[in-house]
Design a protein that fits this description.
This protein is α+β, with helices and mostly antiparallel strands. It is built from 2 helices and 5 strands; from the N terminus they run ββαββαβ.
């Protein structure tokens, strides 16, 4: 005669399905996911952000006769060499149109007469 409620010592009956008593697949999966997340965090490399106001290198002629030599979190650094007032006004109007603050402006060898 066979007893229908009999189960092996290593098995339990849960909701009509036979489950192994030592089955720990969910905690093992969680520990694997946790281990992978920790590994991903430790493998990451910090990349410092660029300056808040970088030089617009895609259109360098926009500031002619001035050159943007550096960008920073404060503003851009402009160097103008051999310029007249008319070309400087166009360059400064372009800087204002791009809403770039100017940290440093150097004008040298220019003619204003």
């Amino acid at each position: 005669m066979v007893d229908s409620d009999y189960s092996f010592p290593a098995q339990k009956k849960q909701g009509g399905a036979m489950v192994m008593a030592g089955d720990s697949s969910v905690p093992a999966l969680l520990s694997l996911v946790t281990l992978l997340a920790i590994w991903a965090q430790t493998d990451a490399v910090y990349v410092p952000p660029g300056p808040k106001y970088p030089c617009p290198y895609e259109r360098p002629r926009l500031f002619y006769p001035c050159r943007c030599t550096a960008g920073s979190d404060v503003g851009v650094t402009l160097v103008c060499v051999n310029a007249n007032l008319a070309s400087l006004s166009v360059a400064f109007a372009n800087v204002a149109a791009m809403e770039l603050p100017v940290e440093s402006l150097t004008i040298s060898s220019s003619k204003f007469c």
